Structures are given as C-alpha cells and as structure tokens.
Amino acid sequence: MPDTIKGLHHVTALASSAARNNAFFTGTLGLRRVKKTVNFDAPDVYHLYYGDEAGTPGSVMTYFPFPHARRGRAGSGEVSTTAFAVPEGTLDAWEARLGEAGVPGLERVNTFGENRLLFQGPDGDGLALVEADDDRAPWTGNGIGADTALRGFHSVELRLRDTGPTADLLGLMGYQEECRQGNVTRFVLPAHNGAGTVDLAQVDAPQADQGAGSVHHIAFAVDDRAAQLQIRQALTEAGAQITPVIDRDYFWAIYFRSPGGVLFEIATNEPGFDRDEDLAHLGEALKLPQQHAHLRADLERRLEPLGD
Hints:
Blueprint: E1 7-15, H1 18-28, E2 32-38, E3 46-51, E4 60-65, E5 78-86, H2 91-100, E6 107-111, E7 114-120, E8 126-131, E9 152-160, H3 164-172, E10 176-181, E11 184-188, E12 197-202, E13 215-222, H4 225-237, E14 246-247, E15 251-257, E16 263-271, H5 296-302
Parallel strand pairs: 1-4, 5-8, 9-12, 13-16
Antiparallel strand pairs: 1-13, 2-3, 3-4, 5-9, 6-7, 7-8, 10-11, 11-12, 14-15, 15-16
C-alpha cells in the first residue's frame, strides 16, 4: 500500500460568488475551467472545477460558491494554504500581475528553501505560488505563457493544534517526513504526481470556523477503484470511519475526518472530466448529475451567470 496514494487529486473550497470566483481562477490565475456542474447535495449551488487542460489529478481546484456566504474565520483544524507550482524565476512576474489585479495579501517568503508568494483569493482564501522545477504541462489557453503558467498543486498546509496523529495518518498513506522548519513539518511521497507534499503546522489557535474562503476538503489521488478499496480497508483497520464509495461522475470518492479535523477524500483518477464533454470543450456547458437532470430548466434560470 505505500505507493497507492499518488499525491493530491483536488482541493475543494467555499466561495461567496460564482462569477467572481470564476473570473479570479480563469482570468487572474489563468487556469482552465474544466467542469461546470452542481453540488450533489445542494443542486442550487455550482460545483466549479479549475485545472490544466484535462483537469489532471493534482491540478484541480474546485469550489462550492454559496451566494453571499459569510467569510470563514481562520484557525486550527483546517487547510490554511493551498500552493501551486510555478516555474523558477517567475515570482517577480506573478507579483506584478497579482498586484495590478488588486489581489490582497501579497508577501514573499522562503520556506524550506523555496521561494514562495503568498496571496489571498476573492474570499480571503489562503493561496501561494511556489517556484519549483516542475515538468507538468500547463494550461495556456487563458493567455498566460507556458514559461510562467501554473503547473498544478505544489502542496497544502494544514494548521493543527496537535500534528502527531495526522502525521501518523500520513505515514499510513505512504508519506515520509522530509524536514522541519520552525513549527512546520513537511511530508512528501517518495513517488508522486507532482502534488506530493503536505505540510503540517502546529499552532495554538482556536478552532477555525468554516465559511467562504475556507477549504472544505482535500482529496488524495489513487489510480482506480481497486486501489481505492485497498486503502479504504487499511484505513478502516486503523480505526478511520470512512464513507461507502460514492460516484461523483468524474471520479469515485470516499471520505473520512482526519484526526486534526480536516476532511480527507480518496478519489480515483478515473474516469476523468472528459467522460461527458469533448476535451476541446471542457467546462463550457452546465453538466448535471443524473439525479438532478430534471431540474435543468430551473437551475439554468436561478444559477448566477459566470460571465464567461
């Protein structure tokens, strides 16, 4: 089982405006919207997916934009930063671009020997760009050149009051402790899809209050359903309370709450986002889960226009 997990699959967060969220991730950051669908449990709310050309696992940021949702309060027990990899030597260009766009929270730091640009998304989302030697192919269709564009996820940071139990969980999932800096411990998969790093920050802070700008859950990638069942059995034997396998149309998913309170998902790389759209037209049409297909007319009237 040590090589079952391939890295991050996707990161899902909450937003307060679908149009503003879409404009930021496709326009400001230059990602491709690879799917426009709805929340399985709340079909009057979009589920928007952004990533590389095909929505490759390890590149996909997704959002549930609840209209006018209140902003979350940062604290412990949450994903505090979602970091994307960019080519080495590009942070100056990115800092200028984000500054011109009025993006708040710009700050240059060096973490674990890596140059990093911190910034905030439209709802105060904790985001970062990290210079990395990363050969993943970027999406350039939104006007950002291949020499600058985002490559996919670099890492996530979890802020926890006690990192020990989550460190043990990551070990079970195949991660190895790589190094420490201050209160942060870095865990890396020996082989991964490019998004193989998780940082655990131990903090003395009140529990986070989830809202717009908060990460709802992080998903880890496995190749297929057989691998998913393998790790589900191992996690169950270790005491995790895990959901049955759920069909999410573009992947199969299982969920469980990690010891620090962060919701974890294990998602399959199959079948992918082109199962119901041609690759050239991903993310253009509103795609509905079968159980919500009868709501199409009402949803198309009620959902916020994205302003494509």
